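Re: the request from the purification team.
They wanted to know what the chain is likely to look like in 3D before they choose a buffer screen. I agreed to run a prediction and write the result into the notebook, where they can find it.
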Amino acid sequence: MIVIAVDFDGTIVKNKWPGIGKLRAFAKPILKWLYKRVILILYTCREGEMLGEAINALNKHQIKFDDYNQNYWKRIHEYGNDCRKVSADLYLDDRAFFPGWWAVPFVVLWMEWREKSAKRRSEVRQRERAV
């Protein structure tokens, strides 16, 4: 299970804080692609009414997320706590290293390959120990 946390202002939309900017190039199709493959969490400084405005803007563009500004429930169960920072395998944020939406599928496909390879290696080791 891959969890990706995505910032809103400056990443999904152009930064027009406190307003809502226009969607950034390729954000919509790639977020829709991601939603089918991974757990997506909107991770933004927006709260309350302003978070609601961001969610409404995303809904207007048919962009879905699994959760908003909180940890994915399976991660809480897995780690036994609900820390303040959202637990994710990848953070997409304009304030961090973010080459652009075009690069995201390459990174996610690599992450999926790495996860499957680790699982296969673990299965092989278990079979070898059983022999």
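For the purification team: Residues 3-129 form a domain with the Rossmann fold fold (CATH 3.40.50.1000).
Please add any questions underneath this entry.
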